[in-house]
Amino acid sequence: MSKAQIRYITLLFPCLALGVACADDVTGDNITVGLDTTSDTTGDGDGDPTGDGDGDGDPTGDGDGDPTGDGDGDPGDGDGDGDGDGDGDGDGDGDGDPVETCEDGIQNQDETDIDCGGLLCGTCADGATCLDPADCMSAQCVDGMCFSGCVNDEACADLNDECNVGVCNEGMCEAAPANDAMPCASGDLCLTNGMCDAGTCLEENVDCSGDDSMCTLGACDPNDGSCYAEPANDGMACDDGDSCSVAEVCDAGICSDPMGGAYFYEEFANNDAGWTLDTQWEIGAAVGGCGDPALDHTPNDNNGVAGVVLGGCASTAIHDYYCLTSPPIDTAGQMSVWMTYYRDLYSDYTPYMKNKIEVWDGNAWVILFETLGSPGVNDLDWTYFGYDVSAYANDAMQFRWCKNIGSGGAFSRGSWNIDDVTVAGAECNLSD
């Protein structure tokens, strides 16, 4: 019979444990067997039939609360751990050792080092022992030890480039210079003519100096390696090559005159500007004849001029002045004003033919030029003339070219041909 069976019977029939016959009441205290919830036949009220009065409820009298009599408090194996195997470690395997884990600070299970490596635990850090690369965080097991450094030059291939080769030096990858004096390219489209020098690809900047000017610097576009002009020197003085500009400065890459250069320019391609033409005066294409030029002066193909009877002789009948008059030109407030033009004049002399140029000063016409006595005028080609008219500046300045016949007997002549009239702040002509 097992201990458990004996214990069960003893608890049900405590009188048997005492070696006496069981009766309804053996103590004389009127306790009825089977109705007494304490299972105590001694009358001491502790629930065991020993009468020891220790209150532990087991019938052995050893005071440990279990009915085995071994005094250890667990049912029957004497080791006190409650698993019944007698080894005291509580795991039921009977070996007496604690449970093995990956956090117990001991190299056990299939670990290659303390709490790491093997199939059960995580990977090991550098310096820990290993059997296989899988045991290591670095996936490198070198001579039985986890190692994250390089072991050969092949492991340093990431450092290879046109001017260097990767080498392994005491576990560390380093770039060693190579290919000195050999061509190289960094990949920067704005650099060219590269050559390796001590591990560095030395290159030259793409030459964009062709875009340099007083107001720009040549620059390279890194997207495609092309050159472009980048604005520079804003506000600095410059020369735009225009003789009519007097105060040029750089502005956003352009050399320009804030004063606008010329105030007025006419090349007589048409009469859109609104010149006033008296009798015999014309604006049109130059026509050779009677001393008139066959070509205009302007360096383009419009061939336009203003003149008296283009390609023919002026009338010799006596008449007052016939004039060509410019539209009004606003020069108010200008400190310097010049009028320049080109002419081809073929004329008899006074009193037969008289020629003059006048300027409107805001109140009256003022003579700038006039022909007088013998000899007459015979320009062999286009001829330049300029006049300082600063003293006459106003908001409606005008100029007029005139001719008359003051006496009979005048010789036939072609008279005026004029071109490229310029009014500006300096002596200049926009056709030049």
Protein architecture, described:
With 432 residues, the protein is mainly beta. Among the domains are: 1-84, no CATH class; 209-256, no CATH class; 262-424, Jelly Rolls. The chain is built from 2 helices and 24 strands. The strands form 8 sheets. Strands 12, 14, 15, 17, 22 and 24 form a 6-stranded antiparallel beta sheet that branches. Strand 19 and strand 20 (365-370) form a beta hairpin. The termini are far apart.
Observed structural traits:
432 residues; mainly beta; six-stranded antiparallel β-sheet; signal; ConA-like_dom_sf
Helix and strand arrangement:
Blueprint: H1 3-12, H2 14-17, E1 141-142, E2 145-146, E3 164-169, E4 172-177, E5 183-184, E6 191-197, E7 200-205, E8 216-220, E9 227-231, E10 249-251, E11 254-256, E12 262-266, E13 276-277, E14 281-285, E15 304-308, E16 319-325, E17 338-343, E18 346-347, E19 353-360, E20 365-370, E21 377-378, E22 383-388, E23 398-405, E24 417-424
Antiparallel strand pairs: 1-2, 3-4, 5-6, 6-7, 8-9, 10-11, 12-24, 13-16, 14-15, 15-24, 16-23, 17-22, 17-24, 18-21, 19-20, 19-23
InterPro entries: ConA-like_dom_sf
Signal peptide: 1-23
Keywords: Signal
